[in-house]
Amino acid sequence: MIRVVLPYHLRNLARVDGEVQLETASSVTLRSVLDALEARHPVLRGTIRDHVTLRRRPFVRFFACKEDLSNEPPETKLPDAVESGAEPFLIVGAMAGG
């Protein structure tokens, strides 16, 4: 089971409290987790990734085990601790400005 932590505004949009728990049928990659999340909560389609290109939206970041995976390819396998559910996969809304 994969644990996913969403930022506040996406939790509100998906109408979930706390973490989202997902099952993935294939190996646990960035793509498989995001596919499973969007399949379970269709309202999130297009909010995390572009509808057409499936590329990460600007100002959305991905973290796992204190590692920034935002610029990694979608086929990147997530750490074993995330796959086992010991650590969550974090989707974070980045901030800009100075």
Name some characteristics of this structure.
alpha+beta, 3 helices, five-stranded mixed sheet, 98 residues, 5 strands, 23% helix, Ubiquitin-like (UB roll)
Estimate nothing, just give the exact number of structural domains. 1
Number of strands: 5
Estimate the mean pLDDT confidence. Answer: 94
For the record, the CATH architecture stands as Roll
Structural class computed from helices and strand pairing: alpha+beta
Question: Which sheet architecture does the biggest sheet show?
Answer: 5 strands, mixed
Low-confidence runs of at least 5 consecutive residues: none
N-end to C-end Cα span: 39 Å
Listing every helix as H and every strand as E from the N terminus to the C terminus, the arrangement reads: EHEHEEHE
Specify the overall morphology. globular
Q: Report the radius of gyration as a whole number of Å.
A: 13 Å
- Counting DSSP H or I runs of 4 or more residues, the number of helices is 3
Short description:
With 98 residues, this protein is an alpha+beta fold. The protein contains three helices and five strands, in the order E-H-E-H-E-E-H-E.
Can you describe what's shown?
- The protein is α+β, with helices and mostly antiparallel strands.
- The protein has one domain (2-93): Ubiquitin-like (UB roll), CATH 3.10.20.
- The protein contains three helices and five strands.
- The protein has helices spanning 8-14, 30-40, 80-84, and strands at residues 2-5, 20-22, 60-64, 67-68, 89-93.
- A hairpin with a 2-residue loop joins strand 3 (60-64) and strand 4 (67-68).
- The model has no long low-confidence stretch (mean pLDDT 94).
